[in-house]
Write a structure and sequence with these properties.
Length: 549
């Protein structure tokens, strides 16, 4: 806590409850607060408008406002001020909905005590501070809301909940690299985030994109933790990134950027510490440069410091196509589960990079008819089916899909709403939202990208009966074959492609079956079921290891 007193506004109409809160706050030695009280929303809003409030404790049922409306009016009046809901036992569902809508936490009045109240206030303030600037990312908010929803359903211990909400370690670096003209020095931000170190080394890709920030990398690292745990891999989650547009850089510029980024985070990574891999904007070549830079620094070759590297440098057969292949294994499993015949089934794929292109290829091989694909440059549509081989050749030559001749053109928004049986999202986050969820017209929505669907959209899609294969399950093929690459590297042996694909399929189908069974048993959606599976494994490990010291 800072030395400054915290200004708390309590909006509560029940005088007994208000008195209890005042007494508890005054009796909590770790808090230095001033407290103002209001019995109606109108009085509360007047105090809020006057300014200076750090946190609101809010009863949702007041004489002049009821339920969620109460929260929304407070939140609209002061969006930057965190709100903790005070709820009665029989209004728990309402309080949980308010948290999903943006409230920081809730406390049950009948079990209120000084420790719980003090903790909620301190953590909420810490979280609100962390949410400003670099941390303030819609993706982190999504990852945290998904986690809190799963935690709520599984009744997760509050100690573990607080511990897992933010990553364990983050490193922010700024560094320069020369542009090709040798006159310009570009300085960029880079990140490496390790979410959970409990499970073994940490593992996660490196993203080069102009929107990367600490919050986005933290969200991706958090999802990596649940993904590795769901797949039973001996890793915690990590992620890295550089805020740069790689499409405007030459190969030489990318190499200089990569080598300097690696040098900046070198203390953080290592085959037993944290193992990077490719993600958006990076590829096998970038991994080769990272591995070479690390090896130059330590003085001998260390292939296992990265995965997703070229096969000739110790990469694994099947890694390049693993994420797309795994996603199609999951689409086939979802089709079996829902009774959908994939033969001739119309499929749409958003994104035509590593994940999207291989997803389209394997969907075609599985008998589906890929009628639309897109990338950053355009969308393509052909109701008779596109030739994926021809599209891959075109992109290899032209870098993007733009001007591909044998198809009609459509926008990414139109592509998402195209009627199909399978919609695979393999580009960016935040693609299916409250705005367009209603118009999504597919039977299976498979997430190759991380975080492509918002929480509100999830609800609409579930109501429409669309089977969602969530990202932590759908795109786990990449990290699973990365794990195989690391195991082969540490043991100096190689597996055949058949062995790799067979093991990948077995691991992913096992995770699919566990997720479906959990969803059915607990009456929850697929995403929450997958997260509960992952969070439960991490929780078990954390409890067994205990708190140091
Ligand atoms: P990539 O850079 O190879 O490809 C990204 C694709 O998305 C490109 O075709 C690009 O043109 C397209 N794209 C970018 N902006 C777009 C927009 N506004 N509209 C439509 N398309 C757009 O990246 P990738 O490795 O294929 O990663 C794609 C997604 O999959 C990311 O969310 C990533 O985190 C996730 N993912 C990747 C892996 C992996 O092994 N590469 C593993 C797990 C998850």
């Amino acid at each position: 806590m800072s030395d400054q007193a915290v200004n708390i506004l309590l909006i509560e109409d029940n005088p007994l409850h208000a008195k209890l809160v005042v007494r508890l706050i005054e009796g909590e030695p770790q808090l230095r607060c001033t407290l103002q009280s209001a019995e109606t929303l109108a009085d509360g809003l007047a105090i809020l408008h006057a300014g200076g409030i750090d946190l609101v404790l809010l009863d949702l049922v007041l004489p002049d406002s009821q339920e969620l409306e109460t929260f929304f009016r407070v939140h609209t009046a002061a969006p930057e001020v965190p709100v903790v809901i005070l709820t009665a036992m029989d209004d728990l569902k309402l309080a949980a909905t308010a948290v999903e809508a943006g409230a920081s936490a809730f406390l049950v009045k009948s079990s209120l005590n000084a420790v719980a109240l003090g903790r909620a206030i301190r953590y909420t303030l810490a979280r609100a501070r962390a949410h400003t600037a670099e941390w303030d990312s819609p993706m982190l908010r999504l990852a945290q809301q998904q986690f809190l929803k799963a935690a709520q359903i599984m009744g997760l211990d509050d100690n573990i909940r607080q511990r897992l909400l933010f990553p364990q370690r983050t490193q922010v670096v700024t560094f320069p690299f020369f542009r090709d003209d040798r006159a310009q020095v570009e300085t960029v931000f880079g990140y490496r985030v390790q979410h959970v170190l409990t499970m073994g080394p940490t593992k996660g890709g490196v993203r080069y994109h102009e929107d990367v920030d600490l919050g986005e990398v933290a969200a991706l690292a958090t999802w990596m933790t649940w993904k590795c745990a769901l797949m039973n891999l001996p890793y915690g989650g990590a992620k890295g990134g550089v805020r740069v547009d790689p499409t405007v850089l030459s190969s030489n510029e990318l190499q200089r950027l990569t080598r300097r980024y690696t040098a900046e985070i070198i203390e953080f990574i290592g085959p037993d510490k944290d193992i990077p891999a490719p993600d958006m904007g990076t590829n096998e070549q970038v991994m080769a440069w990272m591995m070479d830079t690390y090896s130059q620094q330590v003085g001998y070759t260390v292939p296992t410091v990265v995965t997703g590297k070229p096969v000739v440098l110790g990469g694994s057969l099947g890694r390049r196509e693993a994420t797309g292949r795994g996603l199609v294994y999951m689409i086939e499993a979802a089709a079996r589960h829902t009774g959908l015949d994939l033969n001739g089934a119309p499929a749409v794929v958003q994104g035509f990079g590593n994940v999207g292109s291989f997803t389209a290829k394997f969907l075609e091989e599985a008998g589906a008819k890929v009628i639309a694909v897109s990338d950053v440059s355009t969308g393509l549509y052909n109701p008779n089916g596109l030739s994926i081989r021809s599209l891959m050749d075109y992109v290899a030559e032209n870098r993007v899909l733009k001007d591909y001749p044998e198809a009609d053109h459509l926008t990414n928004a139109e592509l998402l709403e195209t009627k199909c049986d399978v919609l695979a999202l393999a580009a960016l986050q935040n693609q299916v939202t409250a705005e367009n969820a209603d118009r999504i017209d597919c039977k299976i929505l498979a997430e190759g990208a991380n975080g492509p669907t918002s929480l509100e959209a999830d609800e609409t899609l579930n109501e429409k009966g669309i089977m969602i294969v969530p990202d932590v399950l759908g795109n786990a093929g990449g990290v699973t074959v990365s794990y195989f690459e690391w195991v082969q590297g540490t043991q100096n042996l190689t597996w055949t492609l058949d062995e790799i694909n067979g093991r990948l399929k077995q691991i992913m189908l096992d995770a699919f079956d566990r997720t479906v069974a959990r969803a059915a048993k607990d009456g929850i959606d697929m995403r929450t079921a997958a997260l509960v599976e992952g969070v439960q494994r991490v929780t078990e490990a954390k409890l067994l290891r205990g708190v140091f010291p």
